[in-house]
């Protein structure tokens, strides 16, 4: 048992983090950048950072994730990375030919204080950026945020660099889908299409990190939001931002820069959050909800009604990204489950805690911030003895140690497939979540059942 020395008694810790409940800003920024069509993410720092971030995404998606690096050595670390970045931009456009290079900083270049806009301007002045091509950047210091913060920063950079208000309003809605899987982005778009809403979805990693194997190597797969689409987002009549931590900053910037009003909703995870999303789309675009979507909703309600006895009173412990934790908590409490602790390593702020408290009251442990870690989560699990855990792959050690079923959610998931292809958002995603929860609970029940109550029919 790997974690058998984790003590049950909890003491206040301020100077030490054990197994952080987050990863680098850069991972999220790289992932968001992959949601631009024909874009090569670039890591402005040393090779080690880029290698780690690429491998994290590659392991999660089981597809080779492409990214380049400024390859800092001692010289750049002392004198700054300008020469490295200008040279990199030249090499990347010459050798790999992307439409867009999306540069994100690392801890090292942030500490040095490299001025990215100035360096990009210099590269342009030196003729290193071919006509029609673009270099964008986001500042992503990992000592100041998590992968979700990095995703938010790169999404805002897309608005900053591309979106324009031409004065000619287009009858389309922007959807900023937040830090979700490509399968979820596709599902969110599918719902908008089913409602007959013309939308611009960005970033959009569907068809990029889950592209099909067709026997050929595609450096730039077919998916991703185009530069043109993100530019036109400045002429949309409304923006729906999904998930406050990952999407609000981009929506606000679109409003300030291009006068596109917005609404920020929870990610459509579970029944009620999906209802809110569908209803907001309906109201915003002045459309009706089609029968097909109502059928999907009815199926979710049917399963909840049929299986309520298995959900009722079951205790859950959650660790993950704040934008997912809010609607997940709402969904679980709607199922009459008892959510005992909710933890995120992303600094999500008092609004996150307030939202969670509205859903679960004062008796549940709620923590956010860079100091929050897996060790703490394990201690809480020991104290609360939940029936079910929700979290990423790293939680499997705790799940094994405590013999509690784990539902894998969030980032990273290194040891399963499915998250790339099957959504947890929308009504179909809610059905999938219900199935996963039920299977986990019933598998354990079957495993532990004495012979006389080992049931064939549930
Ligand atoms: S924490 Fe900073 S230095 Fe370490 S891998 Fe992440 S970006 Fe690089």
Task: Explain the overall architecture.
The longest helix is centred in the last third of the chain and has 23 residues, at 426-448. This protein is globular. The protein starts with 24 loop residues before the first helix and ends in a 10-residue tail after the last helix. The protein has helices spanning 25-33, 47-61, 74-79, 82-95, 107-112, 116-125, 147-162, 182-194, 227-232, 244-258, 271-285, 291-311, 322-334, 349-360, 374-384, 396-402, 426-448; strands at residues 39-44, 68-69, 100-105, 134-138, 170-176, 199-201, 236-242, 262-265, 315-319, 338-344, 365-368, 388-391, 406-408. It folds into three domains: 25-162, Rossmann fold (3-Layer(aba) Sandwich), CATH 3.40.50.1980; 170-289, 3-Layer(aba) Sandwich (Rossmann fold); 292-451, Rossmann fold, CATH 3.40.50. It has a five-stranded parallel sheet with strand order 11-10-9-12-13, sandwiched between helices. A four-stranded parallel sheet has the order 2-1-3-4, with helices on both faces. A four-stranded parallel sheet has the order 6-5-7-8, sandwiched between helices. Helix 4 (82-95) packs across helix 6 (116-125). By secondary structure, it is α/β, with parallel strands linked by helices. Residues 24, 26, 49, 52, 106-107, 142 line the site of iron/sulfur cluster.
Report the structural category. alpha/beta
Tally the helices: 17
CATH architecture of the largest domain: 3-Layer(aba) Sandwich
Number of strands: 13
Overall geometry: globular
- Cα radius of gyration in angstroms: 23 Å
Largest sheet: 5 strands, parallel
Strand and helix order:
HEHEHHEHHEHEHEHEHEHHEHEHEHEHEH
In percent terms, what proportion of residues is strand?
5-15%
CATH class of the largest domain: Alpha Beta
Calculate the terminal CA-CA distance, rounded to whole Å: 33 Å
Mean pLDDT: 96
Small molecules held by this entry: iron/sulfur cluster
**Topology-level CATH name of the largest domain:** Rossmann fold
Unreliable spans are: none
CATH superfamily of the largest domain: Nitrogenase molybdenum iron protein domain
Percent range of helical residues: 40-55%
- Please indicate the count of domains: 3
Give the strand line-up of the largest sheet: 11-10-9-12-13
